[in-house]
Amino acid sequence: MSLLKSLILVLIGRNAKSYLSKAKELSDGEIADKVIKSKDSQLFGILYDRYSNKVYNKCYSFVKNSDEAKDLTQDIFLKVFLKLHLFNSSKASFSTWLYVLAYNFCTNYVNRDKKKKYM
Known about the structure:
This protein is an all-alpha fold and 119 residues long. The protein is built from 5 helices and no strands.
């Protein structure tokens, strides 16, 4: 690899790190707005880092199984990423919107699971 190419890769990496460190200082709503506009998965990762443990704990309280709770957490954050354009920071905080979505997702999951067991 050429020296120039190596230097470019280093600078891109530094800019990305600087960009993300500045983004970590933003509010949840500001990050959500930026993700909506840019579909930037690295920015979305900041929201994931902030809330994944809380969402996992909520999921675990429903299913009482660690692996299942991890799967549900991933499913919820995928849904959040896909539905983030529906989030309106003037109506609710991001955390409230996320927790409602997580609660409803887990409730629906448990109810579907119960129906499968009785069939």
